[in-house]
Amino acid sequence: MSTALEEYILLCIGNPLLDIQINGNQDLLKKYNLKPNDSILAEEKHKTLYEEIVKIYEPLYVAGGAAQNAARGAQYLLPPNSTVYIGCVGNDHFGDKLREAAEQEGLRVEYMITDEAPTGTCAVILTDHNRSLVANLSAAEKYQLSDLKSPEKWKFVEHAHYFYVGGFFLTVSPPTILEIAKHAAHQNKVFSMNLSAPFLAQFFKKPMDEVSPYWDIIFGNETEAESFATAHNWETTDLKQIATLIAQLPKINNKRQRIAVITHGSQPTIVAHQDGNTKEYPVIPIADKDIVDTNGAGDAFVGGFLSQYTQGKNVDESIAGGHWLANISIRRVGPTYPKEKIPFAISPQ
After folding, report:
1. Cβ neighbours of residue 29 under 8 Å, at least 6 residues apart?
2. Does residue 299 have an active-site annotation?
3. 107: exposed, middle or buried (Cβ count in 10 Å: 0-12, 13-18, 19+)
4. pTM assigned to the model
5. Minimal CB count within 10 Å: which of 3, 43, 114, 342?
């Protein structure tokens, strides 16, 4: 019989945030100079946004943070006690709410708790089928490598076989990411990350480029991939070509071939392999009237993918798992999954 620690094969790390989600409008986006489909860090001009959406709109509070959403998604389809998530929260009510929500979904959380800042929040403004995210990291940006290196946390690193790091964590603790990445490369474990947002490739290019040689799997969407290409002066907007160029970036662990996985909304998902092979995977069709909320669809895709990949399934099966869970997620409000466990099965092509 395995020990409790050995059950946690997937370790995820990122910025835990409490999502404050509303159905907004163009006037609100214009007032705060927000794009309808984007993800940014809050600036001083956004401070009143949080007060406004709570007072004027009818907010829905959801346990969020991109990597935590993906971790919850993976655990949804994995056997119990398969996934552990690490990040920093405040010593407050919202932090307790995040823990409670995660644990209700079977996700083990090993939060670092700080008294220096309140638990982070993210304004989620939905318009049509778009979502604009404005993250106020607060406690999430207080995460320290020393927490990961503590014996209580490092044992989870040692026992995990798969790692997933949210790209947003590049704004918080690149040394922590590199510590995990180097461990994965040295032990020939799977290290995966997400491009997460267009601004990261532009303004956090240096830490992203430092960790990219360790990527075994890199996820992203079309705007993030295009931003990555622009930041690296690749004069192309062809997603297949960009995905291939990302897959063929220098790599440290040559025992594993890198794959770049680029989603594109309702368009086929592109997978590029380091050897130059590419493949497109059509998404599961969904009627426009059935789309409730696209916030977290990309995270659900990653969770579904990792739920299969960590069980030894191939890329085709893992993509199918990603599409399946994303399809469930966009039929629901918020980056949430059904309370009842719906078993995943690959549909015949």
Report:
1. 35, 36, 125, 127, 132
2. yes
3. buried
4. 0.91
5. 3
